[in-house]
Each structure stands twice: as C-alpha cells, then as structure tokens.
Amino acid sequence: MKQRVPVSEIMTRELVTLTPKDSLYDAEKLFKKHHIRHLPIVEDKKLVGVVSYSDLLKISYADVTEENDIEAVVYDMYTIPQLMAKTPVIVGPDATIKEVTETLSKVTFHSIPVVKDEELVGIVTTTDLLKYFIDQY
User: Fold this and answer.
1) Which of 81, 74, 38, 41 is nearest to 59 (CA)?
2) Pairing between β-strand 46-52 and β-strand 111-116 as defined by DSSP bridges
3) Which of 56, 92, 95, 126 is the most exposed place for a label (fewest CB within 10 A)?
4) DSSP state of 3
C-alpha cells in the first residue's frame, strides 16, 4: 500500500455548496440531484459550516411519510445556519489519507472539508476513502 498519500489525490474538487442564505428546500434538492450526503456551506469561498443529509432527515419526517405538508412546515421552521455544523473538522490538502481515515474512524460524521489558505478546495468522504482502499487491492 502506498505511504503518505495526500488527501488531495482522492478528494472531490467539483464541489456542490450552499450559502447560509439558502433554504433547506435548496439543500434537499441538491442532495437528491447530485446523490450526495454532505453540503459545505460557504461565504465568499470560505467554509462556514457543513450540512449533511442525515441532519435534514433528523428534523423531517418527509421521507418517511411522503407528506409534503410536514416537509414544508419543518423546512420553514429552520434555516441553514441553525442546522449546519458551525465548526466542522477540516484538513489541509497535504493531510495524508491515513490521517483522515484515523480521524473519521473516531467520530460520528462522514466527511471532512479540505481547506487551503482559508478557502474550501475539496471534501473527502468515507466513500472516497473506501474507493481508494478498494483500488489498493
């Protein structure tokens, strides 16, 4: 297995993001359209938080009940800043895949934004790590 491989080699660079002014409706649309589970929240390319699909599910019974009325009420009650993780764990592009894997193995979230000079440049997820490790065999 390769040693000291930087996370920049496997991170997603083409990011789908939201701003704090976007709505939870916007978040749900992006999750479903892009088949993703994590949305970095940015202001002027600077990371200010992360919202996950599971965060959205925690506040909504919409997927369980298929009733849009419940979704509308819940989505109108909360904002992106209320739901997002405001101080997400971040790494630089030079962090190793091993370091990121060790971090994710100890926490309950499944993505880490990659930041360089205060600018969001990528995101690495447990799925990215699994694909990398599968390719090693």
Assistant:
1) 74
2) unpaired
3) 92
4) S
- Helices (runs of H) and strands (runs of E) counted in the chain: 7, 4
- Beta strands (DSSP E) in the chain are 38-43, 46-52, 111-116, 119-125
Grouping H, G, I as helix, E, B as strand and the rest as coil, residue 76 is helix
Amino acid at 130: L
pTM for the whole structure? 0.87
Compute CA distances 71 → 2, 49, 67, 86, whole Å.
46, 23, 7, 23
Encoded tokens for 8: 């920049």
**Closest-CA residue to 42 (of 84, 91, 103, 102):** 84
d(CA 137, CA 128): 15
pLDDT in tens, the chain (137 residues): 677 899 999 999 999 999 999 999 999 999 999 999 999 999 998 999 999 999 998 887 644 445 555 556 678 889 999 999 999 999 999 999 999 999 999 999 999 999 999 999 999 999 999 999 999 88
Please give the structure tokens belonging to residue 14: 């083409």
